[in-house]
Design brief:
about 140 residues; globular; two-stranded antiparallel sheet
């Protein structure tokens, strides 16, 4: 399956929503949503820079139309996590969160799943697509 960078960005936001936002409440939930909203423009710029990177282009991860073939990317990440083992990461307010093979499968499932605007809005995220942001 081929996707564009916007679909990858949307999938990562879905993953964060499902794995962190929906499993928290109160001030912590508010802080996570606020951090995502605050950093969304930076994330968009990062994804753009990644897509334009000569290193990424040299790896043939992105075709001439700007689309990314997900299968080889997923396979390489699964091989990497198999070699490194689960990756613990301390996150403010959440403690130590361990990233493992299940997370890779979940991220790719979120990327491949069509956008569901109502689900995104319920959790408090605006869409990163131009002209489709949630306003207060």
């Amino acid at each position: 399956m081929k996707v564009n960078m916007g679909q990858i960005e949307s999938g990562i936001i879905k993953y964060i929503d499902e794995e962190f936002v929906q499993k928290t409440d109160g001030l912590l939930k508010f802080a996570i949503v606020a951090a995502i909203e605050l950093n969304a423009p930076k994330f968009e710029n990062l994804m753009l820079k990644v897509s334009e990177s000569s290193y990424i282009r040299a790896l043939d991860l992105i075709d001439k139309d700007g689309l990314i073939e997900l299968d080889p990317l997923k396979e390489s990440l699964l091989k990497a996590i198999e070699k490194t083992g689960p990756i613990p990461q301390k996150l403010p307010g959440l403690g130590v969160v361990t990233f493992n093979e299940k997370d890779i499968h979940k991220i790719f499932e979120c990327i491949e799943r069509p956008a569901n605007k109502s689900q995104v809005e319920i959790s408090g995220f605006g869409s990163s697509e131009k002209g489709n942001t949630k306003s207060s």
